[in-house]
Amino acid sequence: MTVKPESVGMSSTQLTHIDSFLKPNYVDKQKIAGCLTLVARRGEIVHLSPLGLMDIGRNIPMREDTLFRIYSMSKPITSVALMTLYEKGLFQLSDPVHKFIPQWRNLRVFASGVHPNFITAPLKRPMTVRDLMTHQSGLTYGFMNRSNVDHAYRKLKIGERHSTTLKETVEQLAHVPLEFSPGDYWNYSISTDILGYLVEVMSGMPFDQYLKTRIFDPLKMTDTGFDVPAHQKERLAACYQRGLDKKLHVQDDPENSPYLKPAVFFSGGGGLVSTAHDYFKFCQMLLNGGELDGARILGRKTLQLMTLNHLPHGKDIKESSFGSFSEIPMEGSGFGLGFSVIQDQAKSQQIGDTGEFAWGGAASTIFWINPKEQLLVIFMTQLMPSATFDFRGQLKNIIYPAIMD
Fold first, then answer.
1. How many CB atoms lie within 10 A of CB 105?
2. Which domain holds residue 242?
3. Which helix (H) or strand (E) segment is 110 a member of?
4. Per-residue pLDDT tens over the stretch 227-242
5. What total number of domains does the chain contain?
6. 345 within 8 A of 353, measured Cβ to Cβ
7. Are 190 and 239 found together in one domain?
8. Is the backbone of residue 144 left (phi > 0), alpha (psi -120 to 50) or beta?
9. Are 400 and 372 in contact (CB under 8 A)?
């Protein structure tokens, strides 16, 4: 249900430029199959527009209730889940991770060599929970294709959907060196998946059940989970990859997608499927200070803590980074407990505000939340990899000028 944009201080004329830009420049040129953009202000949806197709091969139009693989947009949900346990006094951000994962007490850092014959060195200090939440843990991702450590991740299939359980992944990582000593750098990684395991350890519940009980059910996020039920299969979009020929190639066919089978590895870092409406509920809860329609998920002060820049010495991601991959522009953005946070708007070269927090996913899904303007934006599509096009920058240029008051 949408309201007239003018009722919340936005221009309906300006918002029409969203579709008039995306359709000819992306959908009609088959740079993407289709997309769905949601804009909301002051708790009201002012723009919700499906464009193009959710499945080219079967000629199925994009729908408002299309199911999307949100990949790393799972990360903020996992971070919120862990912080609900913070509010119960179950951990401090400064706690060493080995307090909850004893087998990680003797982690080492990479010096040289290849798996399984690494030469390693001791850590400068223990890894903390905050290191995991801010991607300063020294962990990495196999897809980085940059080092002998991430090569070991690929060889061991660490983090793959049907390879190992969360517990088994934690056991594997106890024997793989870190890329660097915790706190030395920012590096996008499997850290958030480990947060999911911490949720299991602290709550005594399977991670998927904790998310359902503590977040999805209270927020009525009925279409969000780690797999797609058989009766909902027709709502799952096809996922595409842009080839060297600059054409779309099916990366995951909804007819035989791994998401149709129950997940073995509950990836809090990238395993969820959701809809624009469900993710709107999650984002609106954040914008409201932790509550939506009477369901209190987090306290307002907890969210204030989560949306501060936690990188050392007030640095941005660019200054702190060990690698080159991020779901948002690195310059001018710090990192909080699960989100990027704009610290220096001029340096970021983006229209918006300092304090805006955001993230995105591997299939080019994005969101951002602007507390000052009470604005949230969600863009859903299914195109790998996420760095192919600058949807975030282009949509910001169109949407922010729609604010009239």
1. 12
2. 5-65+207-264+274-402
3. strand 108-112
4. 999 999 999 999 999 9
5. 2
6. yes
7. no
8. alpha
9. no
Token pair in block for residue 295: 């369901």
Q: The CATH number of the domain where 37 resides is what?
A: 3.40.710.10
Q: Which two tokens stand for residue 367?
A: 């969101």
Q: What is the DSSP code (8-state) at residue 261?
A: S
The distance from CA 66 to its chain's CA centroid, rounded to whole angstroms, is: 18
The first and second tokens of residue 334, run together, are: 């710090």
> Contact 149/158 with Cβ under 8 angstroms?
no
- For tokens 């991601």, the residue is 317
Q: What's the pLDDT tens digit per position in 112-129? A: 999 999 999 999 999 999
378 and 294: one domain? yes
- Predicted TM-score (pTM) of this structure: 0.97
Tell me, yes or no, whether 240 and 334 share the same domain: yes
Greatest distance between any 2 Cα atoms in the chain: 64
CA distance 368 to 356: 7
Residues 220 and 368 in one domain: yes
Select from 199, 217, 201, 170 the least CA-distant residue to 83. Answer: 199
